[in-house]
Amino acid sequence: MRLLHCVLLPIILTRWIVAKKRTGVRTETGVLVKSKFEKRVADKLTAKNVRYVYEKGLKMHYIVPQTDHTYTPDFQLRGRTWFLEAKGVLDAATRAKMLHVKASNPDKDIRFCFQRDNPIYKGSKTKYSDWATKHGFKWCIGEIPDAWIDEDY
Asked: I want to staple 132 with a disulfide (CB 3.0 to 4.6 A). Which of 82, 123, 124, 139 is the partner?
């Protein structure tokens, strides 16, 4: 039993962590994304001939009081001046983070594409769209509007 804890457990955990990092879903063009919803968004962009970079390169700094962090938008759409965040779940931690990102990067246009317009927590009357509107984020549900795609290009 001691051998299991001392030798095998660290090896098993390391393999599990490495495997976890590789999990995701491949888009039609072979890009590895984190969720089925992000795949759907990426495939729609591809179908509309929109070139994008998925979670690479750009790091937006944001400040949570007394600490420095970075944020990588889900999608940087080439030829556009805005960024897209595809969200299936908009939990409290993500809402707080995005408010810090927006406050630290007031010149950046970050938009949300929500999978569904769910309440921000069980029993709440406030939906994802209500939260986004209140905090000055543009948003859509399920699919990116063509009007967004046509902007800036």
From this structure: 139
* Reported confidence tier of residue 2, pLDDT bands at 50, 70, 90: very low
- Helices vs. strands in the chain: H and E counts, helices first: 6, 9
Closest CA to 110 of 131, 134, 83: 83
Q: What is the number of residues in the chain?
A: 153
Question: What is the model's pTM?
Answer: 0.68
Taking the C-alpha atoms of residue 124 and residue 15, their distance in angstroms, rounded to an integer, is: 40
CA angle in degrees (0–180, nearest 5) for 123-129-134: 100
In a 3-state reduction of DSSP, which class is residue 129?
helix
User: What is the tens place of the pLDDT at every residue in 78-108?
Assistant: 989 999 999 999 999 999 999 999 999 999 9
- Greater model confidence, 144 or 67: 144
Considering only the C-alpha atoms of the chain, give the largest distance between any 2 of them, rounded to a whole number of Å: 63
* Spatial CA neighbour of 74 closest among 41, 97, 107: 41
Distance CA 69, CA 51 (A): 27
